[in-house]
Structures are given as C-alpha cells and as structure tokens.
C-alpha cells in the first residue's frame, strides 16, 4: 500500500513538472513571437500578471492550511488526480512574470539570426533549460517521494508540513507583491 501511494505521489509530481516545463515553452514562444515584450513596454501588464501570480500563491497557501489541518500525515500525503497536478504546475509557471523576463533577458544572448529560425533556436534553449530542470527537479522528486514513506509510517501530525508549505507560498506571494521590477 505504501509503495503504491509513493508511486502515485511520484507520478503526480512528475506530471506537475511536465506542466511547469510546458509553461517554459509557452514563455519561450511568447518571447520569440514578441508577446513578452509587452511586459517591458507596458509595465501595467507585468504588474497584472505579478498580482495574479501572487493571488494564486495565496490561494494555494490557503487551500493547504484549510484542506488537511490536523489530519494525520498519511491522509495529507494522498495523491491528487494527475490532471490537477499538471494544471497546478502549468499555472504556476504561466503566472510567473519573472520567467518571461528571464527568457527575454537570457535567451537573446545566444540567438544568432543568421543561423536560422529564431523560434527554433529559442525552443532549443528552452529544451536545454527544461533538461536541466528535469535533472534537478527530478532528483528532488525522487528524494521527497522516498521520504514520504517515513512520514506516513510515523505518528507525525499534518500540521507542521502544512504550515511550512503554506508559509513558503505566502512568502513567495509577498515577494511577488512587494518586489520591484528587477
């Protein structure tokens, strides 16, 4: 039973990572097509996406605090449907305006218009970025999914992980809300 739940948690995390990586391709295509320039030309658009991202993080923090409060960790670690994990990963990436600015700031340095399609070159850079993310995040997924067995077999309360994760999301939301356009 524990091995099955760990496998489901692992697959949900991998699906969320796929959503995040699809979001990277979205930001790359938007930059390649010039849509991300909107964030530079119209600061209000950047602020709107930044506020949406902060609201989404606060929503996630609230859901975490209210969903499994006081429930044994075994129940708190039960896997969600994979489409929800994918959607959360995708929205997390799409509502991150700094990703768009990152792509706009970094990728053009490696693009040479004489070498062919700019879109293809940028998608290749996004693929490299996603491969690095797959290695790093995939390793974290493996470690954390293996650690989940320890939490499920122990008599831990679900309160402290919920408070911790909710605090991280709230901190990130505050950073988005009060951070300037660096």
The average pLDDT value, as a whole number, equals: 79
**N-to-C SSE series?**
HHHHHHHH
- Helical content stands at over 70%
Which parts are unreliable, with pLDDT below 50 for 5 consecutive residues or more? 69-77
Structural class: mainly alpha
Largest sheet, strands/sense/barrel: none
- Distance from N terminus to C terminus (CA atoms, Å) equals 47 Å
Shape summary: globular
The number of helical segments is 8
Structural Rg: 19 Å
- Tell me the fraction of residues in β-strands, as a range: under 5%
What's the β-strand tally?
Answer: 0
Walk me through what this model shows.
The protein is mostly helical. The protein is built from eight helices and no strands. Helix 1 packs antiparallel against helix 7 and helix 3 runs antiparallel to helix 8. The termini are far apart. Residues 69-77 have low confidence and may be disordered.
